[in-house]
Write a sequence for this structure.
């Protein structure tokens, strides 16, 4: 055998051995396609059993030993002891679905924002309020002052049997019910007495019942929040690792008086106050990385010198949707309403078994292990609200994250950018509210008629509609902050400071000089000139010294 | 004379170095897929399963592996990797019958790797079967030449066709080909 052949053989055998050993290392088959699950209809996963530290066993309370027939009845019983709880909830965003941004003065919250997922709550209350911390919000007449309407159970029960199905205006199903309709799947009615007696601290399942299923299904909206976080392993989240720290949501989102910190409407982009957060103090957001880790958490000083410009999440959440649940990346409403040859709505699946088309909703694209996009962000977010004028020739940003390299307040953040198409008013150049769900003839999902659905939705909010609609491309950004990977899986230096020709994570971030990556011709020329001059100086100086020495010898 | 010997040695060293540098790119090929992970896997699988031409040559899927899963179980993360295993007994049989080249069973079944990189794109990695086969005599050379030709058909995509469903193994693949419908 020639040397070349031997070398080729060696490489081939080593390569093949590596390939085989990798294949053997994994005896798992490919993952089964994840099923999209409707909000409220997900299966219960018990949390890791912890020794209770509570001083009260609610099953022993006389008030809870009755056969409740409705949620409000349970609330009445809760309020006998927890006299101030409902009043506190009334002030929270979980109840009002409203938020006035003190800086931008924009009126936000679910009640006001039009997003590019399910779009808008008005005219769809019965459906959307499955995720409201209350009972009975079916129209604009809902009584926000009623204490009995507060739903204590959704956040505090621990049986996993209490589900608020879409279409019931925030109530659980009090009778066994087929859900989704026509699916043949029966959702059992919860036994409210058992549910009421199970109450305790809010756990991951409670928060996850809504936040894991935002946007109409598991993992759809956020990308970094899905049902894989109910019982996560270390690779998925070092803080929530079921066999490790086992944090609940409330460990970081430390709640006082039912006010949960950590809002996406006013995110804390840069938390550089030295030291951690003293629990009980209200001087800063406790749900930031710095609140526990401070601003210099690394042993290597060079890494700490990055923390003033790089959000922790940028390096420590290198990809999102890592738990095997694909997140929705694209939603095109403009194709909704197609019917099959029998005039019936239909669905199509993608290669992984996820819906890629639904007559009710249009076209979708899903993805797992998504590499985030990166932006400068200073914490200020501006929304395109219903009344905001838009330019339909451009992609409309539902929310714009402010920030720049030079404002002294921004850091580079990872975001999920969700892209879609949704209806807008051609005459007024404004986003539209449309009636999606309802048993009436006007809802999109009952008659697939956009004209009727839009007219109904706009009438519901009392807004002007020109009568003509079209579809506009939209983008909505979501900061990525959950699914923190083990430190060994953080971005390495070379993933940003990649050699030219390689892939640099921050290549599209403007206003950034990346050593080893982005060449500035002027700076390069100046640097090389200085180096050349130095070399020349050394050579000339050395030459003169040698010549002078020789002349000295000759003398 | 000494100059000639030194020149020859230098030539050999340079050729060896060049060979060493080029070998990885010659032995394996990599291309960007126009589709996402799952769709790429599904389209390759169906190219193999649905082609009468490939079926006539004995090709069938013998597994689908997810090496990233093992890393997750160990508490770490890697970007998605899926390996399609495919085999034809018409090609593997003659090689497995010959004691002198039976060690090449280590390369069986054929693998096509689909993986995501830092740029978010999906790539397809394959072995350069034709070049590898040439190193092991006429039997293997000829067989692997056919394999190389068929590999091109595995990766011939028709974007006008709708995305097919991924074909998942019927049972966990304990070893290569454990869930094979055919193969090696």
């Amino acid at each position: 055998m020639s040397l070349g052949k031997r070398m080729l053989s060696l490489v081939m055998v080593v390569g093949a051995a590596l390939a085989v050993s990798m294949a053997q290392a994994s005896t798992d088959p490919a993952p089964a396609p994840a099923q999209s699950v409707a909000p409220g209809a997900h299966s219960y996963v018990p949390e890791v059993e912890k020794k209770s530290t509570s001083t009260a066993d609610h099953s022993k309370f006389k008030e809870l030993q009755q056969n409740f027939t409705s949620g409000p009845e349970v609330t009445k019983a809760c309020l006998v002891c927890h006299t101030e709880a409902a009043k506190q909830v009334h002030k929270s965003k979980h109840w009002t679905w409203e938020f006035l941004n003190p800086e931008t003065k924009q009126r936000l919250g679910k009640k006001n924002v039009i997003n590019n997922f399910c779009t808008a709550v008005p005219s769809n209350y019965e459906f959307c309020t499955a995720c409201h911390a209350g009972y009975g919000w079916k129209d604009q007449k809902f009584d926000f002052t009623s204490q009995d309407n507060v739903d204590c159970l959704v956040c505090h029960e621990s049986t996993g049997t209490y589900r608020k199905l879409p279409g019931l205006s925030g109530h659980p199903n009090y009778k066994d019910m087929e859900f989704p309709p026509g699916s043949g799947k029966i959702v059992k009615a919860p036994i409210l007495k058992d549910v009421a007696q199970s109450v305790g601290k809010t756990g991951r399942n409670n928060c996850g019942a809504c936040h894991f299923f935002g946007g109409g299904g598991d993992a759809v909206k956020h990308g970094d929040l899905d049902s894989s976080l109910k019982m996560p392993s270390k690779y998925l989240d070092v803080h929530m690792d079921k066999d490790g720290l086992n944090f609940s949501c409330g460990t970081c989102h430390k709640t006082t008086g039912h006010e949960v910190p950590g809002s996406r409407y006013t995110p804390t982009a840069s938390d550089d106050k030295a030291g951690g957060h003293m629990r009980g103090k209200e001087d800063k957001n406790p749900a930031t990385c710095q609140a526990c880790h401070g601003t210099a958490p690394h042993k290597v000083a060079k890494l700490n010198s990055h923390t003033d410009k790089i959000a922790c999440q940028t390096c420590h959440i290198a990809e999102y949707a890592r738990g095997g649940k694909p997140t929705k990346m694209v939603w095109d409403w403009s194709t909704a309403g197609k019917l099959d040859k029998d005039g019936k709505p239909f669905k199509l699946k993608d290669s992984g078994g996820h819906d890629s088309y639904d007559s009710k909703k249009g076209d979708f694209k899903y993805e797992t292990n998504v590499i985030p996009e990166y932006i400068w962000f200073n914490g200020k977010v501006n929304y395109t609200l219903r009344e905001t004028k838009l330019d339909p020739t451009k992609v409309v940003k539902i929310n714009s994250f402010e920030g720049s390299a030079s404002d002294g307040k921004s850091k580079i953040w990872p975001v999920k950018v969700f892209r879609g198409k949704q209806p807008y008013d051609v005459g007024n150049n404004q986003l539209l509210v449309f009636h999606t769900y309802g048993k009436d003839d006007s809802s999109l999902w009952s008659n697939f008629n956009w004209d009727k659905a839009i007219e109904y939705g706009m009438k519901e909010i009392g807004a002007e509609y020109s009568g003509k609609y079209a579809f506009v491309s939209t983008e909505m950004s979501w900061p990525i902050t959950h699914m923190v990977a083990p430190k060994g899986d953080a971005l390495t230096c070379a993933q940003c400071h990649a050699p030219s020709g390689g892939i640099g994570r921050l290549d599209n971030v403007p206003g950034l000089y990346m050593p080893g990556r982005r060449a500035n011709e002027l700076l390069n020329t100046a640097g090389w000139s200085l180096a050349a001059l130095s070399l020349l100086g050394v050579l000339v100086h050395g030459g003169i010294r040698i010549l002078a020495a020789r002349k000295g010898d000759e003398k | 004379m000494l100059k000639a010997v030194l020149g020859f040695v230098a030539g050999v060293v340079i050729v060896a170095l060049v060979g060493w540098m080029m070998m990885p790119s010659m032995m394996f090929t990599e291309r960007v897929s126009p589709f996402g992970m799952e769709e790429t896997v599904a389209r390759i699988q169906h190219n193999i399963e649905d082609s009468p031409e490939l079926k006539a040559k004995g090709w069938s899927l013998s597994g689908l592996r997810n090496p990233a899963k093992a890393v997750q179980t160990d508490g770490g993360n890697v970007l998605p990797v899926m390996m399609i295993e495919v085999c034809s007994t018409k090609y593997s049989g003659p090689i497995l019958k010959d004691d002198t080249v039976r060690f090449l069973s280590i390369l069986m079944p054929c693998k096509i790797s689909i993986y995501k990189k830092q740029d978010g794109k999906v790539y397809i990695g394959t072995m350069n079967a034709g070049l590898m086969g040439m190193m092991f005599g006429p039997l293997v050379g000829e067989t692997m030449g056919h394999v190389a030709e068929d590999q091109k058909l595995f990766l011939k995509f028709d974007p006008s066709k709708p995305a097919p469903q991924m074909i998942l193994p019927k049972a966990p693949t304990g070893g290569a080909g454990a869930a094979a419908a055919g193969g090696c």
